[in-house]
Amino acid sequence: MSDSQVIIIGAGVAGLACARELAQRGQRSIVLERSRGVGGRCATRRIDGQAVDHGAAFFHARSAEFAQALAQMPVEGRIDGWPQRVVETRLACQPEAFGPGQVRFARREGMSAFPKMLAKDLDVRLQHTVTKLESTGDRVRVHTQHGATFEAEFVVAAGSLAQSLRLAEPFAGQFPGAAEQFAKLHDLEVVPSLAVIAGYACNTPDPGFEVWNPLETVMLQAIIHDSAKRLAPAHRVLVLHSRPGFARARMGESAEAWSRDMLWELGDVLGEWAAKPLWTQTHTWRSGRIRAGDQLAMPAVLNAPGGGTLLIIGDAFGSQPGFEGAYLSGVAAGEQLARAPERLRLVGR
Ligand SMILES: Cc1cc2nc3c(=O)[nH]c(=O)nc-3n(C[C@H](O)[C@H](O)[C@H](O)COP(=O)(O)OP(=O)(O)OC[C@H]3O[C@@H](n4cnc5c(N)ncnc54)[C@H](O)[C@@H]3O)c2cc1C
Predict the structure, then answer these.
(1) What's the total number of domains in the chain?
(2) How many CB atoms lie within 10 A of CB 170?
(3) Does residue 163 line the site of ligand 1, with CB under 6 A?
(4) What is the per-residue pLDDT across 200-240, written as a single tens digit (0 to 9) for each?
(5) Ligand 1 atom 35: the closest Cα is on which residue?
(6) The domain boundary residue, chosen from 261, 290, 319
(7) Residue 110, domain member (yes or no)
(8) How many Å apart are CA 339 and CA 311, to the nearest integer?
(9) Would the CB of 20 count as within 6 Å of ligand 1?
(10) Is 184 buried (19+), middle (13-18) or exposed (0-12) by CB count in 10 A?
């Protein structure tokens, strides 16, 4: 059993931004993360030592606050303006990210550089999967898969929307005012995506672009020339993201089946060579992102009748879509928890 005033579930951008904001205001928190690393959908894999971003592919910022947070990463390793060679953007999930004047860049070491920076000096417990929340009167008890429990007056659920709902609904379903909040959350459109990482010999000719959101495809939403971000890459690497409809229809099948079809379409678009990579890896993003414009701009607050408060934050709760919204929702929650937690207790009462 471990005590802290705030327990945060999930070390994605939102959970880490919340913990960091609390730390900057002198408050301790514990972040519980089920994976072996931080970052969630701001994800980088290492394949033969080469970084590959298989979630979001580059950073972009609309607000000065988020641009400032991104600017805290070291200048070394920053690839300003990336992507520059862009073929078509109208079907990108946030087409405005490609517009002139937008802060836009990638990093040599991968997208996870940002969550890693946020996590510095925080108390993050990796491989701690939270399985259940329980009210103990004036506190919330957090149970983890391997038997460790934690208790705090405030618990912040910072998983993807579906992951947080899986914990929150059994815990708070009967709280006063909770039913309306959950109904609103179920109305948000969650957009899934299937990802294929395709590796080719490093002397394969440059395909001539960095990002392409093809209009003429039925399966592929984005083709990312990932190895163009790396210095002296060992492999030429393309990352393919599927269209949401294709992901919904094929997610239940074997990855071998859907990746074969996505590669076939890649060959159709780029030429036969592209359909035959030397190796592939896959990933299913069940909750890839919240449809831009659907997000709620404030956390969900659920007060247990005896005391103890659960907040839900993340990209569904930011004033902007994507990782920027996730970051801003985390900062807003951290600020409110540090400055005026009593206001949270009033919500829904
Ligand atoms: C393919 C793809 C492309 C994208 N492109 C863009 C883009 O171009 N621009 C943009 O702005 N956004 C983009 N996004 C969306 C962006 O990545 C997300 O909106 C953002 O990273 C969400 O951050 P988050 O902290 O809210 O959630 P997450 O990143 O999902 O973090 C949640 C964390 O909680 C952990 N967790 C969940 N449940 C538990 C549990 N029970 N116990 C412990 N830990 C738990 C998870 O392991 C995870 O680490 C893209 C996403 C994908 C998948």
Answers:
(1) 2
(2) 12
(3) yes
(4) 999 999 999 999 999 999 999 999 999 999 999 999 999 99
(5) 10
(6) 290
(7) no
(8) 15
(9) no
(10) exposed
